[in-house]
Design a protein that fits this description.
By secondary structure, the chain is mainly alpha-helical. The protein has 5 helices and 2 strands; from the N terminus they run E-E-H-H-H-H-H. It has a single domain, classed as Hypothetical Protein Ta1238, Chain: A. The protein has a two-stranded antiparallel ribbon. Strand 1 and strand 2 form a beta hairpin. It is elongated and about 50 Å long.
């Protein structure tokens, strides 16, 4: 299989069903951002010296992000609203992880300045990429069908990444800085 198709030479790409669309379409932007997020999480894992369990969680999330990208790359012509690779159990898994790590953190009393350890800083950047992806999925939803669990998954993922960034600062022994007016 060749890696190049020459379709992009005309500013177009293909969805899963073979439909050609412009690369600037809302759907392509959304799953492109999900791909960017996946790559950034991979960078985070490669640069982190944190616990093995966290690296495994992040790799699991990378697999879910591939599923999310596939959901976004599958047009309404071959999908109904209830189909999708991302499931409610994936959203619930993120919620359980957020709750678990939140118990290990000091309570939030103000906004947290993004940063801290290298791993925490990478996770904060990943969180902002997830938020952009969330906004782009909402743009797709204005005109097209997206499986029902994609948007909640991306929303919870950004919360997970925020919580994990805070936790990594504790693991790495770096003080978290609060926003003060």
């Amino acid at each position: 299989m060749k890696i190049y198709t020459r379709t992009s030479d005309r500013g177009r790409t293909r969805l899963i069903d073979g439909t050609e669309v412009f690369k600037h379409s809302d759907r392509i932007k959304a799953y492109g951002t999900i791909d960017e997020l996946n790559s950034f999480i991979g960078l985070t894992v490669s640069e982190s010296t944190g616990p093995y369990e966290i690296a495994e969680e992040l790799r699991y999330i990378q697999r879910l992000l591939f599923d999310c990208g596939a959901d976004l790359a599958t047009p309404k012509s071959i999908r109904t609203a209830n189909e999708g690779r991302i499931k409610q159990c994936d959203v619930e898994w993120l919620e359980e992880k957020i709750d678990y790590y939140t118990q290990l953190l000091p309570p939030l009393k103000s906004f947290v300045l993004p940063g801290g350890s290298k791993a925490a800083s990478y996770l904060h950047v990943a969180r902002t990429i997830a938020r952009r992806g969330e906004r782009e999925v909402v743009e797709v939803l204005e005109n097209e069908i997206v499986p029902p669990h994609v948007l909640p998954f991306i929303n919870r993922l950004s919360d997970y990444l925020f919580t994990m960034a805070r936790y990594m600062n504790i693991v790495d022994g770096v003080e978290e800085h609060q926003y003060k007016t």
